[in-house]
Design brief:
about 80 residues, 2 strands, two-stranded parallel ribbon, alpha+beta
Length: about 80
């Protein structure tokens, strides 16, 4: 993911298209690392959500796919 950009897959409708009711956002780092995932899946994820919301006609994703979502589930301080 590139800060300030919200890439669209070529086979998908345009980001601001209202023709699809399901919106999925993938949030994966280039080099996945389970030790840094708690911080990566917090503030950077929220920032990317806001960016994609603005670029997609003010639509929020129905689902967000992230790496290692269970790693921080029991952490004392996930951020």
């Amino acid at each position: 993911m590139v800060e300030g950009k919200c890439p669209n897959r070529g086979e998908s409708p345009a980001m601001d298209s209202k023709s699809q009711s399901l919106v999925l956002m993938n949030f994966f780092t280039t080099d996945p690392n389970p030790t840094g995932v708690c911080g990566n899946n917090s503030a950077p994820l929220v920032s990317m959500l806001k960016t994609c919301h603005d670029l997609s006609g003010n639509r929020w994703p129905n689902y967000i796919a992230v790496d290692y979502y269970m790693v921080c589930q029991h952490a004392k301080d996930p951020i």
